[in-house]
Amino acid sequence: MIEAPFTLDQYIAEQQKCIETALDRCIPPESQDPSTIHRAMRYSLFAGGKRIRPLLAIASAQAIHDAPAGIESAACALELIHTYSLIHDDLPALDNDDLRRGRPTCHKVFGDAIAILAGDALLTLAFEVLSKLEGVDAERRIRLVTELATAAGTAGGMIGGQVNDLEGEGKPPTSELLESIHRAKTGALLRASVRMGAIYAGANAGQLAALTSFGEHAGLAFQIVDDLLDVEQSSEALGKTAGKDARQKKITFPAVYGLDLSHKMAEKERLAAHAALASLGERGERLKQLADLIVHRHA
């Protein structure tokens, strides 16, 4: 693990290498039978991406313990879940998108059936990875599995948020509907990323509470900025089709609050995320930097 004196860019590059290595280790090679499904899984998993969720998990663990060995393996489970959700989101029955991370979506390359199965396989693999973590006692492995399953599920989790998003298309944009969508669809998995890092590193109740609050504010900031980028950036910059939210009449922060107020809300959440880490002192600096990155990113 890289130490604090390194710049944020250096830190991210170092951690991304660890994450990529761990992902490559946990997923079957393309040559393994049935090769088509493994090629499809790898196609989407290694299509790029910032690895924000595993980065948050690692930084959260490091805020509790200087060098939590093996955290990148646990963090991989978050990226597996995230990638599965992107594959399924892009399908014709949902968002019907042809572009993801700057190249054709999984179903455009492998067909709808294999794309569905690739998403299913990544979802399943995430829990296999957590169940087999080495050097982690059974109680913590169970807590990690529970945390991820809840965040990805229906009651306040990612799938529940996706259902609300789908059923909200074309409805009048209200703040209540917006919150029901995004605290679950995006916020739940980002919050879980921080909490899983803390749980892995053995955080006490006070530390877990502080990191949970950070995750909630950072997760909301992420979604606000994501909605803003869909309006303000090009498809080339985003690596996915820009402007789709408005065309599909989705409930977004700009649709409810307008651009100016949405920018102010993102900044408010960034500052609240910083404040949540006060009790951790200098150990929370990397997480603060990642919160800044989430809000100030351009893609």
CA-based gyration radius: 18 Å
Number of strands: 2
Write down the secondary-structure element order. HHHHEEHHHHHHHHHHHH
Largest sheet: 2 strands, antiparallel
- State the helicity in percent bands: 55-70%
Low confidence ranges? none
Q: How far apart lie the N and C ends? A: 26 Å
CATH superfamily: Farnesyl Diphosphate Synthase
CATH architecture: Orthogonal Bundle
DSSP strand content = under 5%
CATH class: Mainly Alpha
Mean pLDDT: 92
What structural class is derived from the secondary structure elements?
A: mainly alpha
How many domains, in number, for the residues? Answer: 1
- CATH fold-level assignment: Farnesyl Diphosphate Synthase
How many DSSP helices?
16
3D shape? globular
